[in-house]
Amino acid sequence: MDDRGFDLEGRLHDLEDADLKRTLSPVDRVAERGYFAEPSGGELPVLDSTEALVFASNNYLGLTNDQRIEDAARQAAATVGTGAGASRLVTGDTMVHQDLERQLAETKGTERALAFSSGYAANVGTITALDPDVIFSDEYNHASIIDGCRLTDAETIVYDHCDATSLRTKLERRAAFDDANEESWLIVTDSVFSMDGTVAPMADICDAAEAFGAWVMADEAHATGLYADGGGVVQAEGLGDRVDIQMGTLSKALASQGGYVAGSSDLIECLLNDARPFVFSTGLAPPAAAAASEALHVARHTDVRERLWENVAHLRDGLESMGFTVLGDSQILPVLVGDREDALALADELQDRGVIAPAIRPPTVPERTSRIRIVPIASHEQGDIVKCLEAFRGAGEEIGLL
Ligand code: PMP
Predict the structure, then answer these.
(1) Which end of the chain has fewer CB atoms < 10 Å from its terminal CB, N or C?
(2) From residue 295, how far is each of 8, 108, 208, 288, 327 by CA, in Å?
(3) Residue 121 sits in the same domain as residue 262
(4) Has the ipTM of the complex gone over 0.90?
(5) Residue of 116, 189, 251 best suited for mutating to test ligand 1, as the one with most atoms within 8 Å of CB
(6) Atom number, ligand 1, closest to the C-alpha of residue 123
(7) pTM of the predicted protein model
(8) Segment 274-320, tens digit of pLDDT
(9) Is residue 266 part of a domain?
């Protein structure tokens, strides 16, 4: 404790003691196709035999080093500027932002869309601006949804993960309260869950919402750009007109930075007036907006999604036929290990074999469900997938999991 009452040292010690202290990665990303290379002696990273394949990023379409997207960002920087310079509502609005929003609305089949400076800001800004009376939230929803709920005066009711029956039970119970039918209710869920690879039962959630007069908000952070016509799960399941708010990030498949909300004109008008992270924050940097626009174009109009899904099928089949349990039903392939020490050992052995995929342990996931979260990306080649599978076989045998 210092003499002004702050105890940062104590907090860091506590984290260390509980084996929960996080640090930034010692490896730097240096090149295309999701490669990492170890920095040599603390110097600049080198591209040589220390290269390893990354199988853990959210760069799902492998576009973060794509020439077309780099060019779009460069051109926006040269013509519009490197920064927006102010909130969009002051002087920060540009054609680049509006073009991105037009494309997002078109992809999502909504009247309008609005870009935020991050997905986190989009979730917090939207939930607080809507300010519902009651929020029904999946137990595994992302932290930015949880924080948005905490910042409202709403009563937040948590339902079991991806369980529409649990949601209905909670809706039913709450509907018995006095004045329930005068309240505004919001159901919010990730569409694809990042640690479990599960996909929310969106159609059942929409049925429940309609039965109880609630709005539905889907966080498509891990789905945007990957499903039907470059949209998310909402598009894949034809639910565009039943989900009131489609939110997502520009930082995963769209290879950029920022977030968005797509919905009705009234929703977007309300958000641009009342969502504080939009109103009181500098507009998204124009190169980020331009990069996301170009990535969305590539996602919609090329075969890049097919390459991702081929890699996903190849890797899932290979892992399962070796005897590993692979959770979920999306592009995220969590390989269940169970024990946290085994998961750490497996991650180390994989790294020794040139595959980077960190162990995910409690408290991020429940006890006894430690896992390796494997994510193939569209730019992995067949040889990369084979190398990853060989690494799993070798590592699994080494530590006695196979
Ligand atoms: N929602 C979900 C489901 C996410 O996984 C993330 C990022 N990990 C976000 C929102 C936040 O997006 P961003 O990184 O753009 O702030």
Answers:
(1) N
(2) 41, 15, 34, 10, 28
(3) yes
(4) yes
(5) 251
(6) 10
(7) 0.93
(8) 999 999 999 999 999 999 999 999 999 999 999 999 999 999 999 99
(9) yes
